[in-house]
Write a structure and sequence with these properties.
alpha/beta
Length: about 575
């Protein structure tokens, strides 16, 4: 019997701990790294020839929404395509537990609006074999997985479960409700949750809204209720808070009350992944450094990919900060079409645009990517600004008319806006910044930010030389694992689970955006399949070989940060 199940032979090893790179062999047995050094190939059942290739820990993605997708896509792609071997779900306060049986449909409708997950796919693909949060973790544990999963407790379903949606949006919790909320939070932490999450943006400015266009519960919660949840973490002595949109003042209060780390979103050069304008990055970095120096443990998720969108008005919801857009893009496609044909609505949209309302993608240089009606083919590749000039109309009318004339199927594409290298270097070298904000599993028809690890290595490290690979692999794996309380992985060392990628740096490429018709009920999504990854391993088993899925599902649920 061979000593090892697998030996990775002769690769250049980046261990994720900022150790200088070295050439060596890795021996794996029963999913664990047993030896690193010079290993005889004859001691292995399987040998992976890594000569001339890079060997590194699998990436850890702390901002995903694969809460439903994992049930029909065990590898949580597109993240799984791009070398991610561990993901955190339950982000931004959104999720599916605890949820009473009679509220399941509403919870799915909510995720359709705020995170743009196809409703028909959730209805067809989710087993709903849980009600409570511990039962949800049990369901995730017994579900075949191609990645490891850790979960926050999302505050929106928790508040709705105890108080009801309308009450939770309309008032603070009373003493009895607060006691029950805290009991359930502690129950979830004891079951293995890594902390709690919430979207805490000012309600009027929030782009991610409930299915009826109203703000989410966490956008309306009182500070006292949020602080009380933070105190549960202090009492438990573990966990972290993932928050998006929180003010610096509120973030500091949560850190002080909890005594636990805060994963703050988003550190970005211009706008977050939904296009919301951000505080100037230099000011944010200065605040993060100052707060940490004062004893508050703050991490920041950094948006490091080009923030681009491909969308149609069939599904688009990221104009929701503008009241008139929120109104006209409610309902199904026919309702949206009727709303956009209304001249009063058109006038209000033009007025809002001219007044400078935030419509992140609607600019003169927004491209018409693909149209389906033959009579429109000649405008493919034109910008809406150019079409407005040709037709002698307002840019808003050009945009809406193209959508209507193509039966709401016209694909619009934001042009690439590469970041300034010096500015990006400051963001990625910030002491507490963690690359990410993939939103994997969300906005499935608009975003492919799950490509961020590949883009980080290929563009920022290889092409632009902004960071050496030793530090890059630490920031992509071990550092986010540490932030989330993942204790047993994120690095290559003896005794650690074998979550490993083997890649060719010269060949590494994010791939091209394409539609994949692979969701339940026939729904499509936007994906990017990378090139250059030779092997992706989770717990010692190969899940992807040269970009092709092997079908293996060796992933684990990471209760309390370990499996």
């Amino acid at each position: 019997m061979a000593r090892f199940d697998t030996v990775i032979k002769g690769g250049t090893i980046f261990d994720g701990m900022r150790t200088p790179r070295y050439v060596g062999d890795i021996g794996i047995r029963d999913g664990v790294i047993e030896a690193i050094g010079g290993i005889d190939a004859a001691d292995a059942d399987q040998v992976i020839d890594a000569d001339g290739l890079h060997v590194a820990p699998g990436f850890v993605d702390l901002h995903t929404h694969y809460d439903s997708q994992v049930y029909w896509d065990p590898w949580c792609t597109i993240s799984g395509y791009h070398g991610v071997t561990s993901v955190a779900i339950g982000n931004c306060g959104f999720g599916f537990a605890p949820v009473k049986p009679e509220d399941r449909e509403r919870s799915m409708q909510t995720m359709t609006r705020n995170e743009a997950v196809p409703l028909e796919s959730m209805q067809a693909g989710m087993p709903w074999d849980w009600e409570t949060f511990p039962e949800f973790l049990d369901s995730i544990e017994r579900t075949p997985k191609g990645v490891n999963i850790i979960s926050y407790v999302p505050l929106n379903p928790l508040m709705a479960y105890v108080m009801g949606v309308e009450a939770a949006k309309g008032r603070p919790a009373n003493d009895e409700e607060r006691a029950e909320l805290h009991r359930l939070m502690r129950e979830a932490l004891d079951a293995g949750a890594c902390g709690w999450s919430g979207q805490l943006t000012d309600a009027e400015m929030e782009v991610q809204r409930d299915f009826d266009g109203s703000p989410m519960i966490t956008n309306l919660m009182t500070e006292d209720d949020l602080i009380a949840f933070a105190e549960v973490l202090r009492d438990a002595g573990r966990g972290l808070i993932q928050c998006i949109g929180a003010s610096q003042e509120l973030t500091e209060k949560l850190a002080e009350a909890s005594g636990r780390p805060i994963l703050w979103n988003v550190l970005a050069l211009f706008a977050d992944q939904h296009g919301n304008p951000q505080v100037p990055y230099k000011d944010t970095i200065a605040w993060l450094h100052d707060a940490n120096a004062r004893g508050l443990r703050l991490y920041a998720q950094a948006l490091t990919v080009e923030n681009d969108f491909q969308f149609t008005l069939e599904d688009w919801n990221l104009f929701d900060t503008v009241e008139v857009w929120r109104e006209v893009l409610m309902g199904d496609v026919e309702q949206r079409r009727a709303n956009l044909l209304n001249e009063d609505n058109r006038r209000r949209i033009r007025d809002a645009f001219d007044a400078g309302a935030p419509m992140l993608a609607l600019t003169d240089d927004l491209l018409v990517g693909i149209v389906h009606e033959p009579d429109l083919k000649e405008i493919e590749g034109y910008t809406v600004g150019e079409i407005a000039q040709i037709r002698d109309c307002h840019v808003v009318d050009a945009f809406i008319d193209v959508a209507l004339e193509d039966n709401m199927r016209a694909l619009f594409i934001t042009p690439p806006r590469p970041a300034d290298n010096e500015a990006m270097s400051q963001v990625i070298h910030c002491d507490v910044s963690l690359p990410g904000v993939s939103d994997g599993g969300a906005h499935t028809k608009f975003l492919t930010h799950g490509r961020y690890p590949t883009e980080f290595l290929a563009l920022l490290c290889r092409d632009n030389e902004l960071m050496d690979l030793e530090q890059a692999h630490w920031r992509l794996s071990a550092y986010p694992a540490q932030a989330a309380g993942i204790t047993d992985r994120g690095w290559i060392r003896e005794g650690a689970p074998a979550d490993i990628i083997v890649y060719d740096l010269d060949e590494l490429h994010v791939g091209e955006p394409e539609r994949a018709w692979d969701f339940p009920a026939g729904a499509w999504r936007l994906v990017q399949r990378p090139r250059g990854y030779r092997y992706i391993m989770v717990n010692g088993e190969v899940t992807f070989r040269n970009g092709e899925c092997t079908g293996a599902t060796p992933g684990s649920l990471l209760r309390h940060g370990s499996a």
